[in-house]
Amino acid sequence: MSEDFWKSCKLKYLIVITFLVLAGLAGGLVVSLPCRAEISSLGEKPVTMDFRDTDLKDAIGMLSVMTGWNMVVDKDVEGKVNVRFQDVPALQILSKILEINECQYEIEDNIIKVSRMPIITQSLPLEYALVSSVAPYLDALISSEGSFQLDEATNTIVVSDKKKNLEKIAVFLQQIDTPAKQLQSKSFTIKFIPVDSVVFLLEDYLSAEGKIEVDPLANTLLLTETSRNFVQLEKLLLNIDVYRAIEEMFTLRYALASSVVPLLENYLGPEDKLQVNEQTNEIILSSDLYTLKKIGALLDSLDTPAKQLQSKSFTVKYLYLEELASMVEENLSSLGEIIERNQARSMFVVKDTSYNLSKIEKLIKEADIFIPVKKTYEIKFAPLSSLAEQIEDILSDKGTLEIKEETFRFTVIDVKKNLDRIDTLVKKEDILQRQLISPVQFEEESLRNVLNLLSDEVRINMFISPEVKGKVTLRLGKPIPFLDALEAILTQNYCQYEIEDNIITISKMPVFSQSFSLQYALASTLTPSIDTFLSAQGNSYLDEATNTIIVSDKEAKIEEIAAFIAELDTPAKQLQSKSFTVKYLYLEELASMLEENLSSLGEIIERNEARSMFVVKDTSYNLSKIEKVIKQADIFIPLKKTYEIKFAPLSSLA
Fold first, then answer.
1. Model's pTM, two decimal places?
2. Domains in the chain: ranges and CATH
3. Model confidence band, residue 38 (pLDDT cutoffs 50, 70, 90)
């Protein structure tokens, strides 16, 4: 018989047997067939099976017929199989088609029992990952029959599902529950405590994989930690970084506490409290630890000599500048000094730290106070109205001036410093030299009458000598000093005045004589110029032998002439040159005589034998003396001598 015939017979046989087996399976069991082999040996034999939308129980029955296995199938086993196996061991085929349909088998006493996979509950604790962050992934892994619960307190996931699924979920959790997968970073800005203090507290709670990076300037930290530990550390951080008021006192050495306060207000929150003790220059602050640290650092940077050394000017109103300056010097710091004193403006400039300048300012306010003193002045010569204007400029803001014109007096109430200044002013202004007279005009008026009129106007006594006489012609178009007018009037009449004990004595000017011996200038050349200085009563006499001028005149004129002579009688003005011709003597013979008579400044600057002359440079007076020497020496002294001529024509030689 052919091979196809046997294949056909075998197929028919399998169909019949399968029918019988399936009928048994439908009842919950498969009856064993004769001559069954052991499951383990048959399960390893490769077989080929092709299932096309086959009911799971039918597929199990067909596999039982083919292998001869005894199989017991639970009633709730159901499903479809749509897969082809080529040369695959039978047990693998069974495992696969059961797995597809969420079923399982177990072998017991050479019988295969098939049942639905049971639902198993398992607790899966996480070490690094946070259960709440893993939950979204479990929704995709859990079967339709499975479920899970999160226990955030213990960071555990309780999963109920089939074993196979549980294994997949466990593997997934193992893969993601690692430090590498669960490390995360976040930056935290610490509000109330210094970041260094926070790090100190958090370090004990860090995992081996965790780390903290700090930015002290921004008071921030970057936390890197596993998800599970990250949440715990974040909660700890929030519990630590809360506002807790601490009171601290800052004592400033150089800066002024009240001037620093506006800078601190930008750092303070609504709950913070700040007080200033100006007496001790202290700032008392109630705030959180971080704010205190920032403000402490700011104050340290500000409270230094370099930052606080500055200059300030102080105007002294009532005390003497030096009196107050000496008090200030006693209160300067080691860095302080008075760098300027201005008596005219009654002020000085102090360089010191801000705090010490404030103390000095208080000192000045306490010391420079108005202590009035009263004084009355009697004025003799100065115009009251003019003097009052000057006094008003001296008075302090609280000083007063009362004028009594009828008695030529005024009363001042002010501080001693200003009264001393008024004393000086009165002494300076209330003198005869400052007295003015009104515009006047005199035409050939008697000198004595004019003097009496002036005496009455300026309220001063005059003693007029009997010899004082004359006429006055004078016109004054505006007020001028009294003494200037008196000088002009007396000069016209060759008179003079003297003041002693506020009495003016008028007398005729005396005539004085004085000799002027000239050293460099020639007296005769100056006499014409000197005569122009002389008054009508003056005269001059020339003594050429001694090169002297004798002048007689009033003292003032004598002084003018003396100044004139002193200006001209100098080597620079009188050094000049003059040429001399020698008639009778040898040039060198006369020159040697002249050199003996030269002054220390003189010299012979030129000698000309051909022209028999030389040039001398010396002062005017000495040149006149040299001229006299030459006139006396270069004279004709005749000598007689006879010559006998041998060859030259006598007439031509003669």
1. 0.49
2. 3-116 (3.55.50.30), 119-177 (3.30.1370.120), 181-240 (3.30.1370.120), 246-303 (3.30.1370.120), 307-367 (3.30.1370.120), 373-430 (3.30.1370.120), 434-508 (3.55.50.30), 511-569 (3.30.1370.120), 575-633 (3.30.1370.120)
3. low
